[in-house]
Inverse folding.
């Protein structure tokens, strides 16, 4: 836990010090993470938009083939991690601004983070399944049940 | 806590400005995009479930509901991206005078319309 030691210049009251109130030194962390993730998302989103042809029309086989490319899988995984984090921290601010009832606010915040975390894990797990159920052993997709 | 305090600004009588409307639009498009993350999730999970599940996903996205949602998300994405760049510029302390804020605002709106139109055009062709 970050902690700034009280010294002669401290303006904390003795009672505040006794109760250990005061800054946890994390006041800008949420804001800063939103900026960092937004910057990381710029190239990721531009890359995704440049792959529009691979995202929109292809058949099932074409999609599996495309996702089996390590570069594609890793980039999509990065988009999922950064994008879902950015989304859930963004929704967090909206909830904090508009929901004032404390119990409803905490419930909404937990549901939001649980949902986005679960969806991100589902995406990453799917990418692993798509990549490792077929490629490493060069087994035809029919044999591992991805294509019936 | 006092419960019946008035809300400021008084939204019903407050004249809408470009700046305030673009600000709330950033939040609305961001919220829409967050909800829209259900699409890539459904897409990736459906691929692991086999061709039938993937077909179901594609049929929905190619239907009238799916295409309208995709068009809305396309605009939201471009607007949120361009206006996000505007916010990042402000974070460096640049472009904060009122004329500059209005100029970058109109630029973002113009850019969003043009890029979204180009995106939808290339998607439908």
């Amino acid at each position: 836990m970050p902690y700034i030691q009280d010294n002669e210049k401290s303006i904390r009251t003795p009672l505040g010090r006794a109760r250990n109130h005061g800054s946890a030194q994390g006041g800008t962390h949420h804001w800063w993470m939103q900026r960092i993730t937004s910057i990381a998302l710029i190239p990721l989103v531009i890359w995704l938009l440049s792959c529009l042809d691979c995202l929109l029309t292809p058949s099932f086989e074409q999609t599996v083939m495309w996702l089996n490319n390590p570069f594609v899988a890793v980039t999509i995984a990065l988009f999922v991690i950064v994008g879902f984090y950015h989304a859930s921290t963004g929704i967090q601010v909206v909830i904090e601004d508009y929901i004032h009832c404390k119990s409803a606010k905490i419930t909404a915040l937990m549901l939001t983070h649980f949902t986005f975390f679960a969806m991100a894990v589902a995406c990453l797990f799917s990418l692993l399944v798509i990549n490792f159920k077929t490629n490493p052993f060069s087994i035809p997709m029919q044999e591992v049940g991805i294509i019936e | 806590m006092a419960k019946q305090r008035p809300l400021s600004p008084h939204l019903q009588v407050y004249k809408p400005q470009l700046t305030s409307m673009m600000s709330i639009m950033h939040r609305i498009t961001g919220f829409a995009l967050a909800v829209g993350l259900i699409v890539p999730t459904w897409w990736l999970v459906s691929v692991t479930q086999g061709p039938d599940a993937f077909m179901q996903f594609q049929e929905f996205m190619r239907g009238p509901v799916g295409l309208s949602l995709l068009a809305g998300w396309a605009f939201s994405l471009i607007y949120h991206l361009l206006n996000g760049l505007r916010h990042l510029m402000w974070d460096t302390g640049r472009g904060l005078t009122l004329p500059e804020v209005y100029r970058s605002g109109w630029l973002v709106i113009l850019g969003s319309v043009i890029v979204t139109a180009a995106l939808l055009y290339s998607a439908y062709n």
